[in-house]
Amino acid sequence: MSGTALRVVHEPVPGFDLAAAESAAGDFLRALGISLDSESLRGTPGRMARAYAELFTPRAFDLTTFPNDEGYDELVLARDIPVRSVCEHHLLPFIGVAHVGYLPGDRILGLSKLARVVEHFACRPQVQERLTKQIAGWLGDQLSPKGVGVVIEAEHTCMTLRGVQATGSSTVTSTLMGTLREDARSRQEFFSLTGVNA
After folding, report:
1. 48 within 8 A of 30, measured Cβ to Cβ
2. Which residue has the higher pLDDT, 15 or 87?
3. What is the pLDDT of residue 1?
4. Which of the residues 120, 126, 128, 134 is marked catalytic?
5. pLDDT by residue (tens digit) across 86-96?
6. Are strands 125-126 and 76-87 parallel, antiparallel or unpaired?
7. 110 CB-contact burial (10 Å; exposed 0-12 / middle 13-18 / buried 19+)
8. Which of 4, 5, 126, 145 could cross-link to 62 by cystine, CB 3.0-4.6 Å?
9. Does 128 qualify as catalytic in the annotation?
10. In this entry, which stretches build a coiled coil (predicted)?
11. From the candidates 10, 90, 142, 155, which is the catalytic residue?
């Protein structure tokens, strides 16, 4: 039996205007006293606009699922999925890894799709807590698994490069649903396999 797929496309933000973003980036830099007259800085507003446009545009993908014909009922976990996002408070990057797992129900997911789902929700201004919940909730809705667990470990440059300048600090968030939340042994197994001390 072939897999079924749901096409996941992030809709462009209404009014997306790269030329206006470039102009605004130039105004922003000049307002901070940065001259754009040199050859190396002349193209910076355009590069800034394109860089943020890329950060806020996830790639479309097919969420491919397959019947769980073998009745697999143990944890499926993808560790160390790269995460890159932008904090919505300062528009500075945060980067790290996500560990995403689920206990299958009637369907299993193509493994690469776990990374695609992480990217889908990370490509927008975010807070790590919401990102963690969005990934778990969406997988729960799409797969109807017996449980879902998501842990994100990230360094926030809004905290390490400015303000408190807490270099080397990281933030850990988790969301557990279903059996991974309700059953202590399943929860412990999930955290043990992610390498996070619960």
Report:
1. no
2. 87
3. 41
4. 128
5. 999 999 999 99
6. parallel
7. middle
8. 5
9. yes
10. none
11. 90
99 marked among binding-site residues: no
Name the residue type at position 172: V
90 is in an annotated binding site: yes
Which pairing describes strands 93-103 and 171-178: parallel, antiparallel, or unpaired?
Answer: unpaired
Are the CB atoms for 84 and 55 separated by under 8 Å?
A: yes
pTM: 0.88
| 123 annotated as ligand-binding | no
133 and 175 in contact (C-beta within 8 Å)?
yes
- Radius of gyration in angstroms for the set of CA atoms belonging to the chain, rounded to a whole number: 20
Tokens representing residue 132 in the block: 């963690």
Using the structure block, give the residue that is written with the tokens 């789902």: 117
Residue 88 catalytic? yes
Place of tokens 């197994």: 189
165: CB partners within 8 A, 6+ apart? none
